[in-house]
Amino acid sequence: MSALSSIDFSGFQRQGFQRFEACISQSQLIALRQVAQAFHANWQRDNLDFYQSQAVNSAYLTAPDYLDNTQRELLFQFIGSQLIKDIISPLFADCCGFLNTQLFFNPVNPDQRNYWHRDCQYHLSLAQQQAALTGPLGLHLRLALYDEPGLEFIPGSHKRWDTEMQLDVRLSQAGHTPSDDLPGGMLVPLQAGDMLLFDANMIHRGLYGMDRLALDILFCDPVPELLQFAREDCLPDTRTLESLVWPDAFTVTANMLKNCGNN
């Protein structure tokens, strides 16, 4: 896996997202794909009703629930690699915390529609959502494990509030639904091995279809209001931590959870 250097983040700062093409080797892609597929199969067994009725993603891949130590080690080595450091660390003034991992897939129901949203809308009031646009930073870094339709974004919405139509659509108001098309949306398709960085608070929606299976790694400013959603069992042990090129994000989260008494 080759690291990126001298990345120009002006596109991300302006639009709220940035794609990195063909970031990893074919062998690395295959290995990560196998781990994700193993997690997905094991997760389905425990969440079959949810999976078949409405699920489009799962979470906490690095926990010991559905992967063995070797599989978890592979994920930790990827998350703590020079490549991920080069993409993530320049965007934080000081340090960042590792928040979570998620796996995105197609819904079982072919009629299930995708939906515009800001990630923060699921735990914040409208006033808090608006304040979050100038608050702590939360980032998704997506690795496409197969070719996929990608995501659609409203460029610049990580720094500005919704228009009336955008708010009505994502909140299902005034006769709108979250799957309605929005003017100004930008489609970002992904090929296997591409990575996509985006601000979690911007208006976006995943696009279903093809063999969509995407690994998202979430990072954030080291603040309790965001890291409260992290889990200690998703962090590497001391031996693994010491072997990582970039252990910092895991260490920040571990310290925050310890100080907050979140065990």
TrEMBL record:
Domain of life per record = Bacteria
The reply to whether Methyltransferase figures as a keyword in the UniProt entry is no
Species the sequence originates in: Shewanella corallii
- UniProt xrefs under InterPro entries: Phytyl_CoA_dOase-like
Identification of the protein by name? Phytanoyl-CoA dioxygenase family protein
Q: Which is a Pfam family this sequence falls into?
A: PhyH
Q: Name one GO molecular function term.
A: dioxygenase activity
Is Oxidoreductase a UniProt keyword of this protein?
yes
Please provide the record's keywords in A-Z order: Dioxygenase, Oxidoreductase
* Residue stretches in coiled coil: none
